[in-house]
């Protein structure tokens, strides 16, 4: 299946470069490019890409606002969003994750990681760049500790949670824990129900907010 992607970035060279990289990858087609947030929302609603790749800082509407418009709470038929940013300590990224983004990357991410993030988002999963997961989420996690779920997490769920928060894919978690891929998906579904998370990114945020990984 070809993944249809919208790329939004206000810098022409960056936007064109990302589009060229993605178009060169098998199974990915860039169907639209936007130079600002308002154009990104309009094009996304009209062309319904499988995934939107958004810069965090854009005129008109920034990446957070665009994410909220296309994938935020209450949005009917949300479009998967991957946020890409220049800075590894960018306060806007945490806001984008809260707004509904399924993942984020740095702009120096190689083509392989970029493709993996888009594939994960298109498949209902999420990918957070492993090298910035702990530092970024820990830096911008809310200072208050959210309540624990009424139904406590099992030992295996805790293991799956930590692995997901570290940016491991479902296949990697299955291999690490010596369980089947379907079992991983079952645990992730259970975790989301217990915690009230909409996706794996929110699972990761909750993991840091509850101090399961040292800040």
Automatic annotation (TrEMBL):
InterPro entries: CheY-like_superfamily, NreC/VraR/RcsB-like_REC, Sig_transdc_resp-reg_C-effctor, Sig_transdc_resp-reg_receiver, Tscrpt_reg_LuxR_C, WalR-like. Residues 146-211 form the HTH luxR-type domain. Residues 4-122 form the Response regulatory domain. Keywords: DNA-binding, Phosphoprotein, Transcription, Transcription regulation. CDD domains: LuxR_C_like (cd06170), REC_NarL-like (cd17535). One of its GO terms (biological process) is phosphorelay signal transduction system. The modification 4-aspartylphosphate is found at residue 55. SUPFAM superfamilies: C-terminal effector domain of the bipartite response regulators, CheY-like. Pfam families: GerE, Response_reg. GO terms for molecular function: DNA binding. PANTHER family: TRANSCRIPTIONAL REGULATORY PROTEIN NARL-RELATED (PTHR43214:SF24), TWO-COMPONENT RESPONSE REGULATOR (PTHR43214). This is DNA-binding NarL/FixJ family response regulator. It comes from Kribbella italica.
């Amino acid at each position: 299946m070809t993944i249809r992607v919208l790329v939004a970035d206000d810098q022409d060279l960056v936007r064109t470069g990302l589009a060229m990289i993605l178009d060169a990858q098998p199974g990915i087609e860039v169907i639209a490019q936007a130079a600002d947030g308002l154009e990104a929302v309009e094009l996304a609603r009209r062309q319904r890409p499988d995934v939107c790749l958004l810069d965090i800082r854009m005129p008109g509407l920034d990446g957070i606002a665009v994410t909220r418009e296309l994938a935020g709470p209450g949005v009917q038929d949300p479009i998967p969003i991957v946020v890409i940013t220049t800075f590894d300590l960018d306060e806007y990224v945490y806001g984008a994750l809260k707004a509904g983004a399924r993942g984020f990357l740095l702009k120096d991410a190689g083509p392989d990681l970029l493709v993996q993030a888009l594939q994960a988002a298109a498949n209902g999963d999420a990918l957070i760049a492993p090298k910035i997961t702990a530092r970024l989420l820990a830096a911008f996690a809310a200072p208050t500790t959210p309540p624990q779920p009424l139904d406590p997490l099992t030992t295996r769920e805790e293991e799956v949670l930590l692995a997901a928060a570290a940016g491991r894919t479902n296949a990697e978690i299955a291999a690490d824990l010596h369980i089947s891929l379907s079992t991983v998906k079952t645990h992730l579904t259970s975790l989301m129900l217990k915690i009230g998370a909409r996706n794996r990114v929110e699972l990761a945020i909750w993991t840091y907010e509850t101090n399961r990984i040292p800040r």
